[in-house]
Amino acid sequence: MAIKAPEGTRDLLPDEALFWEQFKRSATDVFGRCGYVLIDTPIMEQTELFVRGIGQATDVVSKEMFTAISGENLKTLLDGGTIKAKSRLSLRPEGTAGVVRAVVQHDLVPQGAPPVKLMYAGPMFRAERPQKGRQRQFNQIGIECLGANDSAVDAEAIVMCMRFFAEVGIPADNMRLLLNSMGCEKCRPTYREMVREYMEQHSDELCDTCMTRAEVNPLRAFDCKNEACATVMENAPKITDHLCDECREHYAQVKDLLDSAGVQYVEDASLVRGLDYYTRTVFEVQVIDGMGSQNAIGGGGRYDKLAEEVGGRATPGFGFALGYERCVLALQAAGMEFPAAQHCDLFVACVDSSARAAAFALSQACRDSGFACQMDYQQRSLKSQFKLADKLCARFVAVLGPDELAAGVANLRDMHTHEEQQVILSEIPGKLSV
Ligand code: HAM
Predict the structure, then answer these.
(1) Atom of ligand 1 nearest to the CA of 302
(2) Using CA atoms, how far apart are residues 374 and 92, in angstroms rounded to an integer?
(3) What is the per-residue pLDDT for 223?
(4) 339 or 143: whose pLDDT is higher?
(5) Structural domain contains residue 206
């Protein structure tokens, strides 16, 4: 049986591969206007980075990471041996931890320096159960700003995220921006305890998973897809009623700035996100119709403790990532089609094999002048060559046969107007620029 791509992965065929390049270029444009520059970190990192950064108890780290292991280390493990911590590697399930690791490792935010604004694009890997909009290898575009705890960083990034979605064509009236504050290390522990106690009081109504998680991270119960749990958690204490003064002020400033930018949002006190590093602002952008259950096209928030978690000095941060494949689903639901990757200015057709050398030379001359040029490689009939030229959407076809060769010309047909003229071979590139 022919081998297929692994479950939960997909090939970006030429039209889509071109679209992905254009999509990244749009992001570089929009994010670049806010000062974000590209960074490219390894696809593999030490497993320890994700355990410390994202949190051991999260689904992403506890059950969805792909481990990368060399043949030699695998043999050591199978023989009952152990491998060094630095050889324990995982494919990145997200980009933030790696970027923060790079910022710390290369001291990109020296003490007192202005914040650094970084963006990235590339594949992430999560061993989730594949379904529409949920893959095991997917592409994210993300940004991270490190070195400032100003609410303007949060608001600027959220506005920028919404601008990007609008610019690539996701209809504004089919998007919903959810906003919340997760508090900080001062106010969250008390709140977390209140939620845990509330869950204890309702233990007989909550699912086993929520109750098992209650000790480690009770806030995850807000994310539970079980309807009964959702009903119980609706009446749980709300974080926004229990923020410390600084967090409340920060959250109010973010909302004021979003209001002043005309960005609409829905406050959702149950928005907790699945990664443990968040403090204060969190947000998620959902598509309202046409996406099914995997409707989050992007999300992120503030993470003021993450740099310390991975061994750096205290460096506040804010960032978000958007899922490319989910954006494509949203765009396709809005009627988008990928633009054709193929572009052909001239197709050189041969009447018989005596013209092949001249056709080859003419193709090269036109390419050297900057035109996309193709020819037949299968000695097909003239009729088939015209069919192929049509398929390639060639603007012109140059026909070369023994008579044309003798006269040093080609028959040049404009495929739109169907006009034909004899053109001296050396003058063909000049005719293509019209
Ligand atoms: P996240 O919410 O886990 O956040 O992922 C961001 C986006 O990636 C999601 O909104 C979704 O569009 C896409 N995504 C996630 N998992 C999958 C999947 N299995 N298949 C397809 N698309 C998926 C983060 O990853 C954080 N690092 C965002 C962030 C940056 N926070 C701060 N800075």
Answers:
(1) 32
(2) 41
(3) 87
(4) 143
(5) no
299 lines ligand 1 (CB under 6 A): yes
Least Cα distance to 298 among 278, 325, 276 occurs for 325
Nearest atom (ligand 1) to Cα of 273: 2
* Pair (27, 158) in one structural domain: yes
Mutational pocket test of ligand 1: of 7, 138, 277, 283, the residue with most ligand atoms within 8 Å of the beta carbon: 138
Mean pLDDT of the chain: 96
Residue 214 pLDDT level (bands cut at 50, 70, 90): confident
Q: Which residues contact 183 (CB under 8 A, 6 or more apart)?
A: 191, 239, 242, 243, 244, 247, 279, 280
Strand bridging mode 346-350 / 396-400: parallel
**How far apart (Å, rounded) are the C-alpha atoms in residues 426 and 424?**
6
Contact by Cβ (8 Å): 312, 103:
yes
Whether 107 and 86 map to the same domain: the answer is: yes
Residue nearest to atom 15 of ligand 1 (CA): 323
Section 127-147 average pLDDT: 97
Domain boundary among 269, 299, 333: 333
User: What's the structural domain count of the chain?
Assistant: 2
pLDDT tens for each residue of 345-403: 999 999 999 999 999 999 999 999 999 999 999 999 999 999 999 999 999 999 999 99
Query: Which pLDDT score is estimated for 218?
Result: 92
Q: How remote is the CA of residue 258 from the centroid of ligand 1, in Å? A: 22
Listed residues 333, 357, 380: the one ending a domain: 333
Same domain, 295 and 356: no
Q: Evaluate: CB of 94 within 6 angstroms of ligand 1.
A: yes
Q: Which domain holds residue 427?
A: 344-432
Q: Which residues pair with 177 in a beta bridge?
A: 285
The confidence band for 324, taking pLDDT boundaries of 50, 70 and 90, is: very high
